[in-house]
Amino acid sequence: MVYFEISRVGFNCGRDKVNCSLYPDKCMECIENHIKKLGFKIHSNIKIIEMDSEDKRLQMFRELIWLKFLNVLNIKHIILMDINSGLPFLNYPVSEAGIDASLLSGFIQANITYSESGRVSDSDSTPAVKHHFFEFQYQDFNILLRNGEFVRLCLILDQKGSSTLKTIVNNFLDEFEKNYRNRLENLRRTGNIAFAGLEEYVADAFDVQLVFPMVLAHTIAPDVLEEINRNNIQTAVLKFAREFLSSKPFFFIYSLLHEVKDIVNLEAKIVLYEIYQLLKMRIIIPTTIEAAKTNVKTFQEAHARKIAHSQVISNIIHNENELNELKERAKRMNEDEARKSMLLFIRKGKTAEKAKIYKEAQMEYEKALYLASGFNFERDVGKISFMILELDKRNTEMELEYAMNAGESAEKKKNYIDAIRHFKKAIQILEQNPNPSNVETSIKKIEKRITKLQANI
Questions:
Q1: How many other β-carbons are positioned within 10 Å of the β-carbon of residue 215?
Q2: Weakest mean pLDDT among 26-40, 181-195, 257-271, 357-371
Q3: Rounded Cα–Cα distance for residues 453 and 424 (Å)
């Protein structure tokens, strides 16, 4: 007969607590009786939690996913060893911590022998031994280790393992040794073992994919996209993920979480819950670190080709070449030639400025300033510097105007995420203003506007 245990199963008793004479004193007894009638076995350590509402249920899931995330951020390396020989048969790096599994196995064996000898009664290891856990330091890391019947599971952590992580370890070992008992017995007899997909099994058990490099699905079904667009947080997540992927071949949930949290002004665990839903929907897709590395070079080459064909970048390279040529020509100029060239650059700059081609105007003024400074045309240095300063101010005003207009346009369309981002950009421009005039008042007004928009998300 096959025996199963089911965790986190919900049960609706079908009664309204307002009209139930048994609520709340007899609830546990009533639920246990119902469960026994259904043919389930009741353990003495059964845990029953009342969920008051959908909000409480959602809060519980958010908390659960948040704890998963904190636990996996703490894990740097996972090693599975044969409990008799101490030889590792799974050496799984979650990060690039550079752990040598063969060296570590000897260190672990020595520490376990010492811990079990009874000579460490005052150390932190004593309570851990009673509960089949061993905890000790290795280099700059913390080791959390538990023995099963056949295998020894070793987690290399940044910080000490939480109680929830220990529960996950217990559940993993129990399930792993039940599912793979025949193979583990074969390992004990012959020393040979072959596990297909063992890394994937371990990654799923510890939710390691939460720290993998991420990419987006190439296509999203229209009905799924419509559902995402009804969720402001998921919409923001998708938008930022696409922006990350425009400059990098992958992104990480940790970075995405903080970018979105800053915009929507909600608790990190609420944002993470929505990211997790997109993971389950296969909109956000984890990839291995090895696969991500192989894609980086291809991405960089493609990105370099894209930049090379960009008109804006080509103009900058062209202008830099012009300035370098001017520096060479200036070495052979006399004062009269330098003054004529300087005045020509100023005229070109003014023409470009009138046409509102401000970057071109700035480049011409900078070439004029280079000659004025190099030939000590003192009066012209001050005059040209002032022209560049005024041009900078005008450019800043245009950027500010664009950011505000774009924010207001997005707000009218109820695209609150984009509106907040444009208004935050406007604040950044104002904060960089070297000559503030009513800047603080303007920033406070925009911040109030952002707060109102965040309330709509």
A1: 19
A2: 181-195
A3: 12
Looking from the CA of 102 toward its CB, the CA atoms found within 13 Å total 0
pLDDT computed for residue 410 by the predictor: 86
Strands 214-216 and 284-286: antiparallel
* 364 vs 361: CA distance, rounded Å: 5
Is residue 206 within 8 Å of residue 72, measured between CB atoms? Answer: yes
Asked whether the predicted pLDDT for residue 112 surpasses 80, the reply is no
Assign 157 to helix, strand or coil: strand
> Which is more confidently placed, 291 or 233?
233
- Rounded to 5 degrees, φ, ψ at 84 are -80, -55
Question: What token pair was written down for 361?
Answer: 């105007």
Tokens of 91: 């050496």
pLDDT at res. 123: 41
Q: Are 233 and 417 in contact (CB under 8 A)?
A: no
Residue 350 to residue 283: CA distance in whole angstroms: 51
Q: Give dist(CA 151, CA 86) in Å, integer.
A: 9
User: Residue 214: what are its φ and ψ, rounded to 5°?
Assistant: -115, 150
Longest dimension (CA), the chain: 105
C-alpha span between 288 and 212 (Å, rounded): 6
Please report the sign of the dihedral spanned by the C-alpha atoms of residue 162, residue 165, residue 171, residue 176.
Answer: negative
Helix spans in 375-438 (H): 378-412, 416-431
Residue 271 has pLDDT above 90, yes or no: yes
Inter-residue contact 87 to 105 (CB < 8 Å): yes
pLDDT of res. 127: 38
Start-to-end CA distance of the chain, whole Å, equals 52
Distance CA 406, CA 21 (A): 60
Are the C-beta atoms of residues 428 and 402 closer than 8 Å to each other?
Answer: no
Please, which pLDDT band fits residue 266 given cuts at 50, 70 and 90?
A: confident
> Which residues are registered as beta bridge partners of 138?
141
